[in-house]
């Protein structure tokens, strides 16, 4: 029983699945439905359809979809075409400060209504589909588990880096035509990444962005469906999880680093937002 629990905790950090029909139904209790997972979808040569936040979307053949955490995915029970789903958590990916900043910046363009980034794969790169699937499955079979994690991390990171290269020019052009609200919220989320350990007040970020707190709230509601305070809280929880998973600091030291003079206050905050205590989160990750 203990071994099964440990294996389940490990598998929650990343995985690969072949999905068809109702494979992402709530009854399947699929790990990729968890809101903390980022997801990569490899749409095969037949295309497919699935639900994004209750909206049925149809994707063309040979496409790669980058889905940020917080997106509800549900497969179409009437769908017979298969696609490949890769999922991972922020804690799994963030091995360094650079990794974390890259991940946040890569998905920060997804704060608009599209909720995902889309890349059509040229014919000459279709072999990459099979390469990724094969090597991720190989990674899951390696021993010890530390090798599994390193192999999977490097493959997923390579996918995101290639996505950044191929999407860069297109998104730069799109960004020039974005609304003011999307641009402000995009910059707001970048500032949160940089300063949330020390700055948690909405007024600080509003001043940096040269907008009023009320205006900022209107923008975040329009673009992200959240208040500025909620986005700051989300950012703070991400930093806390990264430190708990990847640093050797004590929980008390992490609390101090995040601006909490009382460890109990930090623990209460984290437990409320993450659904488990800092100690339990760290233990689940380290096992």
From TrEMBL:
The keyword Membrane does not apply. InterPro entries: Homeodomain-like_sf (IPR009057), HTH_AraC (IPR018060), Tscrpt_reg_AraC-type_HTH (IPR020449). Pfam families: HTH_18. GO terms for molecular function: DNA-binding transcription factor activity; sequence-specific DNA binding. Keywords: DNA-binding, Transcription, Transcription regulation. Coiled coil: none annotated. This is HTH araC/xylS-type domain-containing protein.
């Amino acid at each position: 029983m203990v071994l099964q629990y440990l294996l389940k905790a490990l598998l929650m950090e990343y995985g690969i699945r072949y999905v068809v029909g109702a494979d992402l139904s709530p009854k399947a209790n699929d790990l990729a439905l968890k809101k903390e997972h980022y997801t990569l979808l490899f749409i095969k040569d037949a295309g497919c359809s699935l639900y994004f936040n209750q909206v049925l979307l149809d994707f063309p053949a040979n496409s790669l979809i980058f889905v940020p955490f917080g997106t509800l995915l549900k497969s179409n029970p009437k769908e017979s075409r298969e696609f490949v789903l890769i999922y991972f958590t922020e804690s799994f990916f963030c091995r360094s400060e650079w990794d974390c900043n890259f991940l946040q910046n890569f998905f920060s363009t997804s704060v608009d209504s599209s909720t995902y980034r889309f890349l059509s794969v040229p014919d000459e790169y279709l072999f990459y589909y099979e390469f990724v699937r094969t090597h991720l499955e190989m990674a899951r079979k390696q021993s010890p588990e530390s090798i599994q994690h390193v192999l999977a991390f490097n493959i997923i990171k390579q996918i995101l880096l290639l996505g950044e290269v191929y999407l860069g020019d297109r998104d730069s052009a799109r960004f020039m035509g974005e609304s003011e609200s999307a641009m402000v919220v995009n910059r707001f989320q970048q500032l949160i990444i940089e300063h949330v350990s020390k700055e948690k007040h909405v007024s600080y970020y509003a001043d940096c962005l040269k907008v009023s707190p009320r205006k900022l709230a209107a923008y975040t509601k329009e673009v992200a469906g959240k208040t500025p305070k909620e986005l700051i809280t989300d950012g703070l929880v991400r930093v806390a999880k990264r430190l708990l998973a990847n640093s050797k600091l004590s929980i008390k030291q992490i609390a101090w680093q995040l601006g909490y003079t009382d460890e109990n206050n930090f623990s209460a905050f984290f437990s409320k937002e993450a659904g488990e205590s800092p100690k339990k989160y760290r233990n689940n990750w380290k096992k």
